Amino acid sequence: MSQESPNSAASDLRRLCRTSTSATLATIAVGHKQVADGWPVTSMVVPASDIDGTPILLISDLADHTRHIKADNRVSLLFTGQSPASSQTRTIETDNARLTVFGRAEPDTTQETRNHYLRAHPDAAQYVDFGDFRFYRITVDAVYWVGGFGKQRRITGQQFTVGDCHALQSGHDDIVAHMNADHLDALADIVSHYSSQNPSAAWHMHSIDCDGMFLASKNLDFPRLRIDFAETIHTPAEARNILVEMCKKSRA
After folding, report:
1. For the chain, give me the number of helices (H) and strands (E)?
2. Which long-range contacts (CB under 8 A, 24 or more apart) does 152-159 make?
3. Are strands 203-208 and 225-228 parallel, antiparallel or unpaired?
4. Distance of alpha carbon 33 from alpha carbon 30, whole angstroms
5. First and final CA of the chain: distance in angstroms?
6. Domain identity same for 117 and 179
7. Which of the listed residues 7, 11, 85, 103 has the most CB atoms within 10 Å of its CB?
8. Does any domain span residue 18?
9. Are 66 and 177 found together in one domain?
10. 106 and 134 in contact (C-beta within 8 Å)?
11. Each residue's pLDDT expressed in tens, for the chain with a length of 252 residues
């Protein structure tokens, strides 16, 4: 039986994708050396989520899954919010949230997509310019979320991906530059109020999206910090308003 959960709003489903360090990609086999055409094939990929929640992949033309996509671009991506290597137990965790994105992989050669992926995965700079690597955006058709026994939700791609956020996408770099130039004290106060991390760890804004922001510390002992917003934003003005409100609450 399907059951709604306070944590299954579209923004929460996007957050699960944003914090996943890897995902399982399912493609339809074409010319595979081991199985017949049409066979479902899975592989591990390292996705990034664009500002509006759209998944982005950087994959090699030499990979089986890329050949499959070129023949039939229907794919599924399974997100669990964590890397499989991070599990410390051998038991099956049936209550772990997981989310499947159904969509179509479309090649993307824009500088914006490249910049966004490299912000999320700077190590990819080592191979991003190899001749066989390409960026793909997953145009989302549908999303299926499972939060455990009896907890599930199905939404459309239109419900999952945030519309009308072009202003936030184009203004992203200016927002980050402004916060880091003039408001590092405000970010420290936000860290103190909205997280358990040390606010004195020289935090700066790494990126911002419709659902929250990632902060990074100059101290490499601190991993990147995710702080979510209470509501979805679409424009630089809404970003300013929500950051000002968060700062006021943290200083109250």
Report:
1. 7, 11
2. 152/2, 152/3, 153/2, 153/4, 153/5, 153/8, 153/13, 154/2, 155/10, 155/13, 157/102, 157/103, 159/10
3. unpaired
4. 9
5. 44
6. no
7. 103
8. yes
9. no
10. no
11. 333 333 458 999 999 999 999 999 999 999 999 999 999 999 999 999 999 999 999 999 999 999 999 999 999 999 997 543 333 334 444 568 899 999 999 999 999 999 999 999 999 999 999 999 999 999 999 999 998 877 899 999 999 999 999 999 999 999 999 999 999 999 999 999 999 999 999 999 999 999 999 999 998 889 999 999 999 999 999 999 999 999 999 998
Q: Are residues 118 and 141 in the same domain?
A: yes
Token pair for residue 47? 């996705």
Residue showing tokens 């944003």? 18
Instruction: Specify whether 78 is located in the same domain as 178.
Output: no
Global pTM exceeds 0.85: yes
Domain that holds residue 215: 167-251
The answer to whether the CB of 17 falls within 8 A of the CB of 49 is: yes
> Is residue 32 situated within a structural domain?
yes
Amino acid in position 37: D
CB neighbours of residue 14 within 10 Å: 27
